[in-house]
Amino acid sequence: MRKQILLILTVAVLPIMIQAQELNARVSINAGRVSSQTDKKVFSTLQNTITNFLNTRKWTNETFQANEKINCNFLVNILEAQPGNIYKATLTVQAARPVFNTNYETPLINFQDDGLTFRYVEFQPFEFNDNRVSGSDPLVSNLSAVFAYYVYMILGLDFNSFSLRGGDPYFQKAQNVVNNAPENRDITGWKAFDGLRNRYWLVENLVNNRYNSIHEAMYSYYRLGMDHMYENENEGRTAVLNTLSMLNSLNNDIGNTMIIPFFLQGKSQELIRIFKKATPEEKQKARDILQKIDISNANTYKSELK
């Protein structure tokens, strides 16, 4: 289904195109906080290694054309270098997908993972196996496992945005990574008790049947809402407002979930632009819901959607 829709979304398709992998990933590593005694060339090598891993590995059974690649960014911010070539870092993951008949891309994910710990020696193999996620050295394997996890999340979110429940196979793959993740006292983010906003809870919210409505909300937002904004802005806006109502209902039924703030992260300005032109009734309804479910941006919605 995603491929059929993307053929429609593409403005012009060349007669002959090179088949490509799924991602157009850009990786950046910031090692500014690491001691000058550490050879910074290691991070340049690692950046290239991860980029090649993401962009050359075949992640799905789908055939992607070059113009269908998913644009995504990964920023590794090294916080600390420890003995034994161990590093503590944060990982910011961003991805977007095109909106029908426009050059605009709408965010799929904009999330910072604060619990990335890994071991890396320059030029060591960067490997990932779905059937042996934990590998032989947990701290080495944790780096590739985290990246593979977020690739599956990006694929799931992208496919979900084109067809209802289209991302389920990739969320299952992400859950497999969680279930078989490397274990070490310094590794966090894979367990329920590691916090309320981590890899465990993110995929749990996407595979747990209690949260089924989040899949309907995603499809409504992207396919019925954003993709219709060019041809029929009012119809698209109505679908986005319906999405907010779904999220509000989910929030009322199951409070303090991870998936709602995760979904809304990075969308505040997009939502403001959508509802700036709405009727007073629509604008007020959107403002009231957004102030409730996107608390971190509540004041912005209050001032911008008067």
From TrEMBL:
> What is the annotated signal peptide range for this record?
1-20
The UniProt keyword set, sorted, is: Signal
State what protein this is by name: Uncharacterized protein DUF4835
Source organism: Pseudobacter ginsenosidimutans
